Amino acid sequence: MYELGVIGLGHIGVPIVNGALSGKAVSADQVILYGHHPERLEPLLLVGASAAKSEIEVVSSCHYLLLSVKPQSLSELLPKIKPFLRPDHVIISIAAGISARYLKNALGEDTKIVLAMPNTPLQLGFGTTALSRIEPATQDEFAFAMRIFGVSGTAEEIPAELMNEVIALNGSSPAFFYRITQIFADRASQYGFDHETAMRLICGSMIGAAHMMLSSGTSLDDLIQAVCSKGGTTIAGLTAMNDAHLDQALIAGMEACTQRAYELGK
To answer: What is the pTM of this model?
Structure first.
């Protein structure tokens, strides 16, 4: 019996497994995998993980089952695996918008579930994952899921009813940050900066600002004011952004992200 089975080895599934192995959250000989891209399997097999020939083989031979597939794929996958689930199985789902109720309707009311929303910086060990424990999953079982993701960054427990809302905060937010950076970098090139220099300046500032927000003990308002001086450049920039309705644009993006999560779960 394998400790962890994984169905789906895409751009997030492989890094989750890599992180879990390198962080020693689980040993390679306790992992069985199934995915549609053999080339992604090979590096994991070389370090000792096992490959299954089907989804059913994974389910039949593991304790924790990580579903790392697109939300749209679950309607076909869940009925296929349901007959092979045991009472001790723990389902870990990273499918955006897919609620515990959706999973229980498909797999059974007594199914043990952990909902997880990771993000792609997990690939570099800087991921942020939000998780929720759904009864009858136990605290010990939830702790295992937390370790799987926590070794590749940080893991936070949140209420299950906020799993759709959290997507804008950590699941999708890297893309939002990349877009903002892209705008800054493109404008910098128009000023005459080469792209690499602009990226080092922008990303270094983002990293430093993140540390200030997390570690300085200072409120966001005070951090903003600390950069501003009366009649100076920062106030001019913030005023122009406010006039261009930056707040409304970002809130609209968050709301659209959350709305789409609810649509995927129907």
So the answer is: 0.93
Residues 177 and 152 placed together within one structural domain of the fold: no
Q: What is the CATH number of the domain that holds 250?
A: 1.10.3730.10
Torsion angle defined by CA atoms of residues 151, 59, 33 and 266, in that order, rounded to the nearest 10 degrees: -70
Q: What are the structure tokens assigned to 217, written together?
A: 């003990």
Q: Compute how many other C-beta atoms are within 10 angstroms of the C-beta atom of residue 24.
A: 9
CA dist 75 → 34, 47, 106, 234 (Å): 18, 32, 8, 50
Domain co-membership, 59 together with 142: yes
**Domain span including residue 191:** 171-264
Residues 138 and 203 in one domain: no
Same-domain check for residues 234 and 151: no
Reported as type and span, the H/E element at residue 240 is helix 233-243
Which sign, positive or negative, has the C-alpha torsion 233, 239, 243, 247?
A: positive
Assess whether 146 and 189 both reside in one domain.
Answer: no
Q: What does the pLDDT look like over 22-57, one tens digit per residue?
A: 999 999 999 999 998 888 888 999 999 999 999 999
Check whether residue 156 and residue 218 sit in a common domain.
Answer: no
Closest CA to 134 of 156, 115, 158, 157: 115
pLDDT tens string 102-129: 999 999 999 999 999 999 999 999 999 9
Residue 117's Cβ-side half-sphere holds a number of Cα atoms within 13 Å equal to: 28
